[in-house]
Q: What sequence folds into this?
């Protein structure tokens, strides 16, 4: 047994202290993820199924229509975003778990700002999702996407942005939720239509106008499109096929630039983050 | 600073809608004291503790903890208190040490002492050898010990224990009290606890009995017991019904069957026993006389036993509100 009690003086709250809080909340997210192999594998199964089973099957059907491009190559950026989104939502959902098992209380009674905890959680979700996305990135060669460093870096950054925004969305949803079932029910309800309407699974050109309108108001569209544009810019594809598979997003006939799309995702992320923090402040 | 109370509460109130969970309580806790809140579930204990811990904003009145106002100086209060809740607040997927490290970072414990301090508090609750085990593999008692260690990690000036041993077996309860007593001697700390176990309240320097959101009385356990002035007598007979009737008829005493024996309170219990044998008119198998327990104290101040007060119903809703 140690002798004298080691006395600890807890310093007054400061920016440095809040930063430590952000770091440890982030660190915990990563520890939790690394410890949970089942989750890691299950999060990967879905996109791999889509990519290699659905992609191969559908590919035989549309081969004639898109000469020179493997349909799986088209689906690839969509599946990256799908992986990232599912992982990010699960991370956000852990807030509900934390509430159910009491750990959230340990965080909320600490002398740190709510903002630090929410930012840590969102960064954690984003980092974990990107980690999962890297596994899909590693499969690029299998679907004919070149391992170009520039492309990989671009995709990583775009993944991070998408994951951060989705985690912020999930945390905003989870802020008030008392049990996991409700959260995952709601999450399915929100994520499925967003996935379908994002261009992750089929090209957004030549859609009937009602469907086109829905895809342009879907925020996920602006997360998926930059990834697809990045992938296609590293492929040599006949112009007409590129126009069909990678039409970009148009607002009343105006081509939305990638920078604006990314800016939009970032802005939505920032707003959602603010909302999530406000939710936790109010919870007092 | 030395003379300032560790906890000073003045007319503290909390209402949820029309329900007055806490109806204006006032008390002070001196530095170094072990102060207990004793009362049935739903009496307002948890609500009061939540207000003192800055988790719930009071509807009225004021409270200062470790010299800081619980509303205006929330973060200062939070940095100076340790909390052990009724329900566990550990992350079962992390190891014991990771849980403590998380806490140290969140509370801004200086990096140079984090490792030593973690070791010290874990040794205090005899969990150092289990530091690398996942918390989900721990028993209820080990989890509670780890939570106590965590509550102490940042050297709080006031440690709040909300029902520290509820749901634990008697052996583990005794062990936890062993740690709490050791802690009192080792660390310069004030302990504020709630309990509805009478035997636990005996460990306190002073007790506040709380019922229906009001403090009924505050005093040391000895003084409270002395104030009752009655001893508790328990007898085993062949016919409890007849014995109760006879006690009422011959001695004017109200008795009831508690813990399987006919139980009643009487002044000067030892002197009463010979009269009892002589005049009851029924065979008595055994008799025991005991000094009043805190159960009797609670009974004499509130007119009901803790267990009966809890069975009274309507409390579940209050509890649900208090937990929010």
A:
């Amino acid at each position: 047994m140690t002798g004298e009690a080691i006395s600890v003086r807890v310093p007054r709250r400061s920016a440095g202290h809040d930063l430590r809080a952000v770091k440890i909340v982030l660190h915990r997210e990563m520890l939790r993820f690394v410890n949970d192999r089942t989750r890691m594998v299950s999060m990967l199964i879905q996109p791999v199924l889509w990519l290699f089973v659905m992609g191969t099957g559908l590919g035989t059907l549309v081969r004639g229509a898109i000469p020179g491009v493997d349909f799986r190559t088209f689906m690839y950026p969509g599946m990256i975003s799908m992986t990232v989104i599912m992982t990010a939502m699960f991370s956000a959902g852990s807030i509900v778990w934390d509430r159910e098992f009491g750990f959230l209380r340990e965080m909320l009674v600490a002398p740190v700002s709510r903002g630090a905890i929410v930012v840590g959680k969102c960064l954690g979700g984003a980092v974990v999702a990107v980690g999962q996305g890297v596994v899909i990135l590693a499969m690029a060669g299998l679907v004919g996407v070149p391992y170009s460093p520039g492309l990989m870096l671009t995709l990583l950054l775009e993944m991070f942005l998408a994951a951060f925004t989705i985690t912020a969305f999930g945390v905003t949803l989870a802020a008030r939720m008392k049990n996991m079932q409700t959260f995952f029910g709601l999450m399915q309800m929100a994520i499925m239509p967003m996935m379908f309407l994002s261009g992750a699974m089929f090209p957004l050109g030549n859609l009937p106008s009602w469907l086109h309108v829905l895809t342009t108001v879907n925020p996920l569209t602006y997360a998926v499109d930059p990834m697809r544009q990045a992938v296609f810019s590293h492929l040599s594809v006949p112009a007409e096929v590129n126009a069909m598979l990678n039409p970009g997003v148009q607002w009343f006939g105006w081509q939305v630039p990638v920078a604006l799309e990314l800016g939009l995702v970032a802005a939505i992320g920032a707003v959602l983050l603010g909302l999530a923090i406000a939710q936790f402040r109010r919870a007092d | 600073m030395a003379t300032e109370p560790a906890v000073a509460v003045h007319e503290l109130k909390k209402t949820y809608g029309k329900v007055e969970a806490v109806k204006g309580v006032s008390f002070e806790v001196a530095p170094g004291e072990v102060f207990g809140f004793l009362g049935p579930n739903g009496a307002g204990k948890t609500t009061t503790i939540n207000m003192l811990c800055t988790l719930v904003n009071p509807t009225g009145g004021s409270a200062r903890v470790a010299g800081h106002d619980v509303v205006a100086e929330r973060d200062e209060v939070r940095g100076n208190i340790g909390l052990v809740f009724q329900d566990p607040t550990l992350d079962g997927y992390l190891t014991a040490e990771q849980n403590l490290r998380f806490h140290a970072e969140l509370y801004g414990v200086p990096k140079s002492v984090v490792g030593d301090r973690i070791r010290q508090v874990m040794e205090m609750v005899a969990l150092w050898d289990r530091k690398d085990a996942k918390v989900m593999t721990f028993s209820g008692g080990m989890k509670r010990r780890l939570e106590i260690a965590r509550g102490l990690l940042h050297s709080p000036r006031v440690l709040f224990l909300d029902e520290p041993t509820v749901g634990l077996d008697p052996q583990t309860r005794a062990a936890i009290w062993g740690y709490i007593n050791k802690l009192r001697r080792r660390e310069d700390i004030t302990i504020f606890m709630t309990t509805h176990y009478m035997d636990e309240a005996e460990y306190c320097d002073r007790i506040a009995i709380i019922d229906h959101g009001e403090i009924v009385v505050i005093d040391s356990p000895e003084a409270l017991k002395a104030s009752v002035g009655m001893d508790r007598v328990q007898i085993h007979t062949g016919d409890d019904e007849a014995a109760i009737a006879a006690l009422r008829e011959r001695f004017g005493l109200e008795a009831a069957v508690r813990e399987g024996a006919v139980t009643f309170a009487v002044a000067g219990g030892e002197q009463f026993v010979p009269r009892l044998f002589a005049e009851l008119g029924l065979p008595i198998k055994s008799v025991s006389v005991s000094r009043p327990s805190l159960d009797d104290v609670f009974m004499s101040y509130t007119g009901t036993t803790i267990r009966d007060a809890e069975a009274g119903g309507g409390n579940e809703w209050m509890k649900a509100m208090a937990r929010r």
